[in-house]
Amino acid sequence: MVEKYHRKFRRFLENNMHVPDNRDGSDIEASILSYDTDLDDVETIVSEIVSISVSSDEEEFLRSYVSAIDSNMEWAQQLDSTQVVPNKKNEYSMLLSLTRQLTADLETAVNEGNELEDIARRLKDAHLLAEVEYEEEQMMQAGRNLEGILERRKKLNSLMNELQTLEQYVNTHQITASLRHRKQVLGLILNNAQASSQRSRSGAIKVSVPEDFLEQMQEFARNYQEEVCGHLICRKEGDELIALKMLLSGAGTEGNVSPDKAYVNAVNDLLEEYPRYSFIDFHTHSVGTIQQHGPQFAENWSRRDLQNFDDQGEGYTGMLATPRKILVERNGRDAELQSFNKDSSSQFREWSQTLDEHWTDIASEYSFPTSFDLTPAN
Fold first, then answer.
1. What is the DSSP string of 80-126?
2. Which one, out of 50, 151, 207, 251, has a CA that is 20 to 30 A from the CA of 135?
């Protein structure tokens, strides 16, 4: 089970570790992942050289990883001959020894029963079947018992061979020491991430969105009767969320606009596979909504919007576009919206291209609606 955590931890470092320009990220990542790296060196790396961003979900993953290591550590210690506590090998050895002794005792008993067998045969020849049948059945039952025990001994011998191979693997690869090392590395990352989080908690998180994304949202609000909703897929960079992709996922009237389930599931899969990303839910207050419910909808969140925030966890971020303004809100922390020209940013192009590759891989498993019914504004 712990193998899936190993793979996900590697992706976590690839996506969440911020390395200074003068350092080689691959070498640093290899040092953190290596079980031979001195723990003092790991602490220097994560506390002084790099910064590693950890969201609440990623913190939960790291703690789950620690729990999985604890479970595997117990298993490895039982097979590790360097452990002083009795291990499973000893238990199986005792069981196998007992089985061998029982087999030998039964074989002796059967051999000593030859005289009884001869007597039974003579009685049978004399047609005294009633007296013979009991002894004959005893002999047959003894044979069946012997066959069963011999079969169990054969299986135990096979099990012992497998167990010895497994024990040799555990010892050769130092599984116990490796698991203990990884657990301590995870603790260092968690401790430093928490310290960093405490230092930055007082400031607002920056939400950086390309200018044309924001313009497109407002165009929907100005030009259609229905509200639309969707997701901004963002890259997490310290205290900043940088929107790289905009997905339109639903349309409807105020109170019943909601994203298509395929989009929701695909976005969740993306975030599960690539912890570097986050998302922002957005929706519009359209001219149709404002005409029907009043001008306050052009300036503020609706009561339903605020209730939705209350229903979500800490860190949930939402964005509202009206014909007049764009608002952003985040649970548990202030959010500051800023726009940028994505066409002039080489960093955006690089990150966006990588996200497109990741999204294409995830989205290939889903079928999305090709269009939504929208009524042009009067």
1. -TT-SS--HHHHHHHHHHHHHHHHHHHHHHHHHTHHHHHHHHHHHHT
2. 151
Q: How many CB atoms lie within 10 A of CB 141?
A: 10
Structure tokens at 105: 């005792």
Return the closest-CA partner of residue 135 out of 112, 108, 147, 117: 117
Mean pLDDT confidence for 55-79? 78
Is a pLDDT exceeding 70 seen at residue 3?
Answer: yes
pLDDT value, residue 176: 72
Tokens standing for residue 93: 């050895």
Single out the residue of 137, 140, 151 nearest to residue 102, CA to CA. 151
Among residues 35, 34, 33, the alpha carbon closest in space to that of 8 is found at: 33
Kindly indicate the confidence band of residue 96, based on its pLDDT and cuts at 50, 70 and 90.
low
Report in angstroms the alpha-carbon separations of 186 from 49, 324, 358. 16, 47, 26
Contacts of 88 (CB under 8 A, 6+ apart): 78, 79, 163
pLDDT at res. 239: 79
DSSP category for residue 298 = G
Q: Is the pLDDT of residue 86 over 80?
A: no
DSSP 224: B
Longest dimension (CA), the chain: 115
Quick check: 297 and 260 in contact, CB under 8 A? no
Q: What's the distance, Cα to Cα, between the start and end of the chain in Å? A: 59
Q: Does 258 have pLDDT greater than 60?
A: yes
> Are the CB atoms for 204 and 336 separated by under 8 Å?
yes
Joined tokens for residue 374: 């929208």
Strand stretches in 104-182, DSSP E: none
CA atoms of 39 and 177, how far apart (whole Å): 12
151-176 tens-digit pLDDT: 666 666 666 666 565 555 555 556 67
Q: What is the number of other CB atoms lying within 10 angstroms of the CB of residue 32?
A: 21
Per-state percent for the chain, helix, strand, coil, to nearest 5:
60, 15, 20
